[in-house]
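Is this the right way to post structure tokens for a design question? Let me know if I should format differently. Anyway, here goes:
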């Protein structure tokens, strides 16, 4: 049974408990004493036991971000929490606690073995992200319904399942149901699932499984399509032309245009409006296709740029490796000679020569770095010019296409105005038998009213077109600026880091000769 905290004093996971747990399972004997003196970096801890400590709440584990195995069994924990930073966890034991709900495990995507044995859980849920799960122990909980086992079908790597001690196990069909619906399971409730059991399970549930598998296939296809659509839409966003491959922009103009919606209901205006929409969508589609084309060109240009940068860095690295390798051969030979000679003059000469070689090494490595800096600066400058030219070409054509949309809107507005004024004149003269609804009759009371309504509609359309164009200009400009800023920033950080690395290395090799235990020199 789960332990009740009203009979024990609840404990808190604090620094004292964590240090004690780490030291108890850490190095032994002399190594353990050193660890206590110098401390243990929690980042280096891979396994942690916090069992049998009367813990009520999981907390303060954020420092153990490299943890692979965590034992929290035999405590009085009521809620799964405080584990979101343990993203490297593969093995988690929360058995013999007072947990009622499975949650708080979403970030533990590397988890392979999960034990929730002997808790108060009544529902299998919130495990969707644990796609690498191999072992799941849910024994001695409160799961009652066979249908809940179907939830576990999504875990294709699950091989070991323990449900023993749950009310569901009392169902006479429990074992065959579990084996039929969870075909990947190898061990069920501590027993190997044999071929005979599999055959009987399949025979018993063949029809229902067929229906379920058909439904799962439909859901899978639906999910794959949704993922593909989302991926495609993301690409359209990166190309700055999302939703321009259809009537969205056209429809958005009218969705924000109450006067235009009324005018579109004028009898006989349908053909004019249809032709306008058709041409408008055609130009929108040209914007869309051109945007995608340019996006591919930009991607290729960016890809080639970063490949050139990496090639230059790799070439520089090989030069450094060869230079350091040559120096280390010299260093090894010099140290060997120094350790063998007792001639003071020879020792002084070799040490002086060594310091000169170290200085030469420093100059060469720094020279290589300066050469790389110049090379990368040239590459970045060329890329920046090419990118600026590409974006300029992109924007010029985009603006030309949006000018066509504005011109199309202007032409449509003129046709609409001419048609409506002509209709009004006929109505005034009694030459028109067209019946208008209440909204349209209010528009056609006089010329000023209908002209103002058409003008208001026209303004809204132009604003929508202008806003979409401005959005493309702004987003593309922001992307370009951010990309170049990030490139310059990373190169500056790389250069400073490399210079510091060279300086540290040179200081180290310069000091190495003074660490030698040289033989005592002859007095002569």
């Amino acid at each position: 049974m789960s332990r009740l905290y009203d009979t024990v004093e609840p404990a808190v996971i604090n620094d004292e408990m964590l240090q004690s747990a780490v030291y108890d399972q850490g190095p032994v004997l002399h190594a353990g004493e050193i660890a206590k003196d110098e401390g243990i970096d929690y980042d280096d801890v891979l396994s942690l036991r916090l069992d049998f400590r009367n813990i009520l709440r999981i907390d303060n584990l954020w420092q153990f971000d490299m943890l692979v195995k965590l034992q929290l069994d035999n405590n009085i924990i009521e809620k799964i929490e405080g584990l979101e930073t343990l993203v490297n966890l593969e093995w988690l034991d929360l058995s013999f606690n007072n947990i009622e709900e499975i949650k708080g495990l979403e970030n533990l995507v590397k988890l392979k073995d999960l034990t929730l044995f002997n808790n108060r859980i009544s529902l299998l849920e919130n495990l969707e992200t644990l796609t690498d799960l191999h072992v799941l122990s849910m024994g001695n909980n409160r799961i009652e319904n066979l249908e809940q086992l179907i939830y576990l079908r999504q875990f294709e790597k699950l091989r070991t399942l323990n449900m023993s001690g749950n009310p569901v196990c009392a169902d006479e069909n429990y074992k065959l149901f579990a084996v039929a619906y969870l075909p990947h399971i190898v061990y069920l409730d501590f027993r190997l699932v044999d071929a005979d059991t599999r055959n009987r399970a399949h025979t018993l549930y063949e029809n229902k499984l067929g229906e379920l598998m058909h439904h799962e296939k439909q859901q899978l296809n639906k999910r794959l399509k949704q993922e593909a659509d989302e991926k495609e839409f993301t690409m359209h966003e990166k190309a700055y032309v999302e939703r321009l491959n259809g009537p969205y922009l056209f429809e958005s103009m009218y969705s924000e245009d109450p006067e235009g919606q009324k005018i579109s209901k004028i009898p006989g205006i349908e053909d004019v409006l249809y032709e306008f929409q058709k041409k408008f969508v055609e130009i929108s589609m040209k914007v869309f296709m051109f945007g995608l084309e340019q996006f591919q060109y930009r991607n290729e240009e960016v890809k080639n740029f970063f490949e050139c940068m990496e090639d230059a860095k790799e070439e520089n690295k090989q030069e450094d490796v060869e230079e350091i390798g040559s120096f280390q051969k010299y260093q090894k030979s010099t140290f060997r000679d120094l350790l063998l000679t007792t001639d003071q003059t020879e020792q002084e000469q070799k040490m002086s020569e060594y310091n000169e070689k170290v200085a030469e090494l420093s100059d060469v490595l720094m020279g290589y770095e300066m050469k790389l800096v110049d090379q990368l600066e040239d590459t970045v400058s060329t890329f920046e010019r090419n990118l600026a030219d590409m974006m300029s070409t992109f924007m010029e054509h985009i603006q030309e296409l949006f000018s066509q949309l504005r011109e199309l809107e202007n032409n449509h507005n003129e046709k609409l105005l001419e048609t409506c004024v002509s209709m009004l004149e006929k109505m005034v003269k009694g030459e028109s038998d067209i019946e208008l609804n209440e909204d349209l009759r209010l528009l056609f009371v006089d010329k000023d009213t209908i002209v103002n309504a058409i003008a208001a509609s026209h303004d809204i359309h132009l604003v929508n077109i202008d806003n979409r164009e401005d959005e493309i200009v702004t987003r593309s400009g922001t992307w370009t600026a951010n990309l170049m800023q990030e490139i310059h920033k990373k190169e500056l950080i790389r250069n400073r880091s490399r210079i510091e690395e060279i300086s540290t290395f040179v200081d180290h090799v310069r000091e190495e000769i003074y660490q030698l235990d040289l033989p005592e020199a002859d007095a002569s």
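Format looks fine. Someone answered above. Worth noting: Residues 28-37 have pLDDT under 50 and may be disordered. The first helix runs from residue 15 to 24.
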